[in-house]
Design a protein that fits this description.
Layout (H helix, E strand, L loop, with lengths): L2 H6 L2 H12 L7 E2 L7 H8 L6 E9 L5 E7 L6 H8 L2 E3 L2 H8 L16 E5 L8 E4 L5 E5 L1 H8 L3 E2 L9
Length: 168
């Protein structure tokens, strides 16, 4: 991506693009025509399954007010008890906390380029897919990657942090 292309992007997407480029990531962010605030909206816009969307969920660690980022598959729900067992007691993060800690608004939280480095966990269920897509700092911004790229880009551990789905 050349400099003039970066200028045309929203500030959050520019930060993500620069972070990806600095780490040698092969895929630059794309701006979708329509909002992709939810995993389902992103999947629909990209023509992929909702599971291939890497959701970035922010929690607030109670002991020190640090952001905890859990990256999970769009078709899974985070098990807060599993997260708490790994990082300490957490609670819900409101929109103001998310924006202040990450620099992104809810619906556009990227797994990279945060304003303040979060404690990060990557859910192992993402590894069901060869290709996934993550938010790129704006509700219309996304970027392509492989689950193993998340480990490289974030330095975060892979863990089991989702609720077990009941068999139908």
């Amino acid at each position: 991506m050349c400099g003039s292309e970066l200028i045309a992007l929203p500030e959050g997407v520019r930060r993500v693009a620069e972070a990806l480029q600095a780490k040698g990531h092969a895929h630059a962010p794309l701006m979708l025509e329509h909002s992709a605030r939810t995993a389902q909206e992103a999947a629909d816009a990209l023509g992929i399954t909702v599971g291939q969307i890497a959701k970035s969920i922010i929690f607030r660690r109670k002991s020190d007010d640090v952001a905890v980022l859990v990256i999970t598959s769009g078709d899974r729900r985070v098990d807060e008890k599993k997260v708490d067992a790994l990082v300490g007691k957490t609670g819900r993060a409101d929109a103001e906390f998310v924006k202040a800690r990450t620099g992104f608004t809810i619906g556009g939280v990227s797994p990279v380029a945060h304003a303040h480095a979060p404690v990060t966990l990557i859910d192992r269920d993402l590894f069901r897919f060869d290709v996934i897509w993550a938010a790129a700092g704006h509700p219309n911004g996304v970027f392509q990657l492989a689950p193993r790229d998340l480990e490289q880009l974030t330095g975060a551990p892979v863990a089991d942090v989702v609720k077990v789905e009941a068999a139908a």
